[in-house]
Amino acid sequence: MRHLIAAFVMVIGAAFPVLGDVQAQQPLAIPTPPGATVVTELNVSKEQLLAQMDFISSFATGDSWASILDAEKLKDALGTLERVQFAEMKLGANYSTRDVLDFFGKQVSGRRIFYNIDGNPGGGMILLATGNNQGYLGVIVRSEKKADDKPAQGKITAVRLFGFPDISKIIAIIADPKVIMSILTKGK
Asked: Which of 149, 150, 161, 143 lies closest to 33 in space, CA to CA?
């Protein structure tokens, strides 16, 4: 699985335009909890996303889901989105899910939209509308359990959006019957 992820990241990285000095210096704006280690990081601008849409559609053939998608509608659905950041982190056993989620809530000021720690033991999720109407931060925490039911190691997945995609337009694209049928019948 790690090899597949590494190959995917390398293909994406190779397809993105070369970063300018300003973009290359753009730091990851997802805070890292004490004791956590970032293992995967993605930092993509709107221009890079648009280039990827053009890249994917240029290779789409036949009735594949990518050939059915309307590139202009996808571009319009990005709305005011300026940048997307993604981070995956490993976290040791000296934490609680509540502490990790509270850490993100304090570090990224904003309005809590969704918060849940009642799911799987050791798991939880938070979604924040970030301060000054800048975008969103979503964080999922999962942990493996030892025999004594204490966390052995945790995994944090975080996504931060700068700006706002047009959710209604994204849903309209995804809910298009041609797209749904293409995805459902793939490989049959």
From this structure: 143
Q: What is the CA radius of gyration of the chain?
A: 19
Written as one letter, the residue type at 184 is L
- Other residues' Cβ atoms within 10 Å of the Cβ of residue 88: 17
And the tokens for 134? 């800048």
Report yes or no: 109 and 129 within 8 Å, Cβ to Cβ.
Answer: no
Going 28 to 162 to 4 to 17, the CA torsion angle's sign is: negative
The whole model's pTM is what?
0.72
The predicted-structure confidence for 90-132, as pLDDT tens digits, reads as follows 987 677 788 889 999 999 888 999 999 876 667 899 999 987 7
Phi-psi map region of 101: left, alpha, beta (phi>0 left; psi -120 to 50 alpha): alpha
Nearest residue to 155 (alpha-carbon basis) of 164, 145, 168, 165: 145
Show the CA angle centred on residue 137, arms to residues 141 and 179, nearest 5°: 90
